[in-house]
Write a structure and sequence with these properties.
The complex is a heterodimer of chains A (113) and B (109). Chain A is mainly β. Chain A contains no helices and eleven strands. In chain A, a hairpin with an 8-residue loop joins strand 9 and strand 10.
Amino acid sequence: IAGITQAPTSQILAAGRRMTLRCTQDMRHNAMYWYRQDLGLGLRLIHYSNTAGTTGKGEVPDGYSVSRANTDDFPLTLASAVPSQTSVYFCASSEGLAADTQYFGPGTRLTVL
Amino acid sequence: GQNIDQPTEMTATEGAIVQINCTYQTSGFNGLFWYQQHAGEAPTFLSYNVLDGLEEKGRFSSFLSRSKGYSYLLLKELQMKDSASYLCAVRDSNYQLIWGAGTKLIIKP
């Protein structure tokens, strides 16, 4: 069982380019999340999805979009990347929003120049 | 605003006990989580408290006082592999996790 996979592992991107970070889980979890982690700050929620077909905004959604076409996949898109989006991005999943555990993917390190 | 406070860094000796504190002010409360994160890796789940009191899991224990907005993570019989960051997070009234910046724990031989 892989759990949660993310791709790419790392990426260097020119400002203004479009980028999609991929996230796939094989645990059949209903809820999925995207976080960013910056030095000296806690993880911050970007977007989440309670179940396939629904999405919601987290604490820092501006500049990002998500879709949840099926249970397993939850891609995060940066329509026009800016340097302030340089960060480590983690995808996570849980059985539901009220579950007692969130499981994290290995992360994507994104640098926007 | 919502706020989670925990010490930035702590140092302890192998074999000893360390307590990492977390205080919070959030819009509602639906549980408190502790995660461990080794450098360059993903966070991994340690514990979950939703009621007051102590939850024990092997060498790790977590305590919660909702009236005081306070939790601690207790690590016993410290091992070198326990060197990591420890993240405190509170689930708010919207069922979103609010995270502290993490406590970097350094274990010395």
